[in-house]
Amino acid sequence: MKSIRNLALLAALLGFQAYAEEEPKKEAEQAQPPAAAAAPAPAPAGGHVFAWPFMDWKEMQPRGGSTKGSEVTLRTEAKDSWKRLHQPGLDKFELDRRAILALAGSYRVSFDFTETAGLVENFKPTRPYFSWGTENVSVLEDRGGFISLQHSLVMYFKNEKGETDGPHVMKHWRQDWTYQDPELQVYQGDLTWKKVPTENPAGKWSQAVFQVDDSPRYESAGKWSHDGGMSMWRSDVRPRPLPRREFSIRKDYNVQEGTDEITVTPTGWVHVQSNRKLQVNKDGSRQYVGQELGVDRYEEITSPDLATAFNAYWAKTNGYWKDVRETWTAVLKERDTFSMKDTYDGKQLFMIHFQRAEEIEKAEKPDPEADLKHAQETIRQFLN
Known about the structure:
Strand content: 35-45%
Order of helices and strands: HHEEHHEEEEEEEEEEHEEEHEHH
Structural class: alpha+beta
Helix content: 10-25%
């Protein structure tokens, strides 16, 4: 398998995006209010821009991924996990569990975001965002009331000759689900997280989301509902750091505050985000600058094969990533509040972890003791 270092760097920098992002507009361009007398140009068929029908549609063309991936074949029949979820006689707890386990699979994943409101003067919405990739979601652990799902990008590209290049595997984000979790790691802004008791945890599942390097990103709790054949989890309000698609072009806010809805479908799942854009200042004052709506759609595919490539990568590197996860578990257990450095010695955390994982993947003989020491020392270097 080809070196994944450059792809890992690219994909991690782009957050939940598999492909290269076009050059963003300069902030000064985005900040310019539209001319008062300018009428919107009529949109061609299919050119309507959701939420902004009276803006010139050409100014609202989506930014995001531009590299072409290989063709995919979508699953047409219901997944086995969907059928298991709809077996009769299941109690609420087992329905919840099966809904979470149904999130695993191989998917074409699309990420679609649109600002819906501005809350400051002279507001002009940024261009909508759209990107997609192919992603494998595997069950790392299932201990009844705890389920861990590992996402990994498995990418096939089309080159200039139209030939398929791949697979390229990159470990992506992770989500851990805990039943009736008594406390959450809540993002405070400024790369700081604080342990907070869960509000009314009875019957709730927490979803803890971790970065590509397994450092914490955000966590929230909510309840699953199963009514009329629809299984959906709705979170309480959660703050989180800005995603790449935002912090690469925005400097006017530093926290995304919102809710998540995850709905299981016969051939995948849909994640809907309702986010508020919030500036939290060091003196504690707060200013909302806007709102956005996001839809992440996971559609099961039957080809290309994602699982085989992921399993081959994971067989060689899982020991190291387990060390990383367990080191973070210890850190979160011992600290009520923690802050992270953005870089150490000129490098970001994911760069160091991915370089080590690549070395392990190529090594002829594993060295578990050295890998554990590397994981622990690396993470400690990034803690304030």
